[in-house]
Amino acid sequence: PGSAPLASESGLVVPVGRGDGCPFDPPAGVERVRREQPVARVTLWDGSSCWMVTRHQDVRAVLGDPRFSADATRPGFPFLTAGGREIVANNPTFLRMDDPEHARLRRMLTADFMVKKVEAMRPEVQRIADELLDRMTDGRSAADLVAEFALPLPSLVICLLLGVPYEDHEFFQQRSGILLSLRSRPEDIRTAQQELHAYLVRLAGSKRERPDDAIVSRLVARGELDDDEIASMGRLLLVAGHETTANMTALSTLALLRNPGQMARLRNDPSLIKGAVEELLRYLTIVHNGLPRIATEDVTLGGVTIRAGEGVLCTLNSANRDDEVFPGGDALDVGRDARRHVAFGFGVHQCLGQPLARVELQIALETLLRRLPDLRLDVAFEEIRFRHDMGVYGVYALPVAW
Ligand code: HEM
Q1: What share of the chain in percent tops pLDDT 70?
Q2: Ligand 1, CB cutoff 6 Å, lining residues
Q3: Whole-angstrom Cα distance, residue 132 to residue 77?
Q4: What is the ipTM score, two decimals?
Q5: Secondary structure letter of residue 255 according to DSSP
Q6: 142 CA distance to ligand 1 middle (Å)
Q7: Pairing state of beta strands 399-401 and 142-144?
Q8: Distance 110 CA to ligand 1 centre (A)
Q9: What span, in angstroms and rounded, lies between the C-alpha atoms of 279 and 282?
Q10: Is Signal given among the entry's keywords (predicted)?
């Protein structure tokens, strides 16, 4: 399935997922809207309406402006699905709170995700990447890259950081899959969320008995949060910390395999890796459905007035293809300076885990290209199943051979 139709008799309908064209591109209609009607009134799945912002400058303006709230309990907040509404109604995390509450909670984690702290983890991440590839290639010449490399790498890392036992990965990966699926029924979302929450409440309890020096244990020791609040934070980190990087790793590998000239450039000059990761983040924009906000005051943007109480969706994938900022942006160019991309969002909610995601992606892709010089797809491109129905885009499996 591709995206929902963009144009309808009632006006513009928000596309969910990608278009039916190139699976790396935003839906074609979104590009047209950016050119013709950059701040557009659109209809959501439930018939309500909100604004869709598609230009790079407008997306940054909304996400950087405190008059736009991320508090999903405000009436009129735009949700992309009924399940999305359920997640927030049930148990919000600081992703959907405003300052000062958001800042108070986020501040408890900033030291753990600082560039310096995360850079020091490089040897550990490299060791994990090498061990996974040793196992994947041992006596074999083909495997599913998602199951054997792209997913376990960030899962193992976030488990280490949080102090979550990796043996439980099937349990939390299955639940986070339900939370991220745009197709999940609200009741299934509620159950998955409750199970994950109960698991993390138990984990916090066990760290009180047997402390270690990982994040959950340190939050317990700090004594400022109750176990419920720690569990909500842990849930946000656990879900955000493995699904995103896993999908970026697999989708980036596929994008490079489909652009052999770019892949060869990167292989021949590994010093390009940092820039290439930024370009892949821009080009693929895996958090591909609009980031939701709600205006708390009237704001004029792109020639229209957004009234207090009206919702806004900031479409990162369109902003990241905006020609004004990224000329020729529909092409993947590993030598491009893509640092202004908004794949990690912008403003106070800009991705907390981005230094970690960068280190993981740089190591994963560099190691893969270096160790498997004749890496190739093991199925026809047309057979690959893309995650059109998930809040984080990617592929379900990536059969490769070497
Ligand atoms: C927030 C993308 C990896 C933790 C965000 C947001 C985006 C994003 C777009 C902003 C959401 C909004 O403003 O509504 C990504 C991408 C990743 C990635 C593309 C990988 C390629 C990670 C990792 C972690 C993480 C590895 C953690 C370990 C978070 C957290 C927030 C967040 C905690 C909420 C920040 C806040 O509300 O202040 N991420 N992320 N992310 N991300 Fe990431």
Answers
A1: 95
A2: 70, 94-95, 106, 158, 236-237, 240-241, 244-245, 248, 286-287, 291, 343-345, 349, 351-353, 356-357
A3: 42
A4: 0.99
A5: H
A6: 32
A7: antiparallel
A8: 13
A9: 5
A10: no
**C-alpha to C-alpha distances, 267 to 88, 257, 278, 334, nearest whole angstrom:** 43, 12, 16, 11
**Secondary structure element (H or E) that encloses residue 8, with its range:** strand 7-8
Is beta strand 311-314 parallel, antiparallel or unpaired with respect to 291-295? antiparallel
- For residue 400, what is the enclosing H or E element? strand 399-401
Per-residue pLDDT of 314-327, as tens digits, reads 999 999 999 999 99
Q: Atom 2 (ligand 1): residue with closest C-alpha?
A: 344
Name the 3-class secondary structure at 89: helix
Q: Give the separation between CA 51 and CA 14, rounded to whole angstroms.
A: 9
Contact 315, 290 (CB under 8 A): yes
Give the pair of three-digit tokens for residue 96: 């959907």
CB atoms under 10 Å from CB of 397, counted, come to 15
Nearest alpha carbon, ligand 1 atom 1: 351
Residue 252 has pLDDT above 80, yes or no: yes
Phi, psi of 181 (to 5 degrees): -80, 130
How many angstroms is it from 227 CA to the middle of ligand 1? 22
In angstroms, what is the span from residue 144 Cα to ligand 1's centroid? Answer: 26
**Residue 274 Cα distances to 8, 270, 339, angstroms:** 42, 9, 10
- pLDDT at position 20 over 90: no
3-class secondary-structure state, position 212: coil
How many beta carbons lie within 10 A of that of residue 21, not counting itself?
A: 11
- The token duo for 128 is 């994990």
Pick from 50, 63, 67: which is nearest to 12 by CA? 50
List 306's β-bridge partners, or say none. Answer: 299
DSSP per-residue letters across 130-183: HHHHHHHHTT-SEEEHIIIIITHHHHHHHHHHHT--GGGHHHHHHHHHHHHBTT
**Pick from 90, 79, 82, 287: nearest CA to 193:** 90
Say which residues have a Cβ less than 8 Å from residue 296's Cβ, sequence separation at least 6: 67, 68, 69, 74, 308
Q: HSE on the CB side for 282, CA within 13 Å?
A: 29
| Whole-prediction pTM | 0.95
Ligand 1 centre distance from Cα of residue 245 (Å): 10
Task: List 8's β-bridge partners, or say none.
Answer: 11
